[in-house]
Amino acid sequence: RPTDLRGVVDAVAALYRESRPTLRLRTAYADELPLVEVDPDHIRRAVLNLVDNAVGAVESGGEVLVEIVHLAEVGRVQVVVSDTGPGILPEDKDKLFIPYFSTKTNGMGLGLPIVHEIVTEHRGTVRVEDNHPRGSRFILELPVAPVPAPVPI
After folding, report:
1. pTM > 0.85
2. Which of 9, 70, 77, 81 could form a Cys-Cys staple with 50, CB 3.0–4.6 A?
């Protein structure tokens, strides 16, 4: 259904702000954001997985930023989750979305494949890149919801 991603991101951010009051988690939103046509519960799960990974990467000494960006020229909206953690090795980036691959000692390697599946089902994409000067950025990109045609009077 048509969904404002600000509510999805705010709900995820609130969970972490309540459970980890010392965590530096910031949110930033474009001024005018269109709706996206998604299952909000599934997208919340995808964002939650990305934020959870970012929080784990910074532990207590870094920062997590969740941004929502509108790419009007291509009709897409991005949710960007960046952290100031140690980053991801170049040789691991291509494997992150493969089930059971994990860079963590306690991970099952299913979080990012689930994110990939959810986003793909919504006609979107997800990718990772370096966050400069330090850390990682995960970019979840979704198509803008179609604007209904005006009803003739």
Report:
1. yes
2. 81
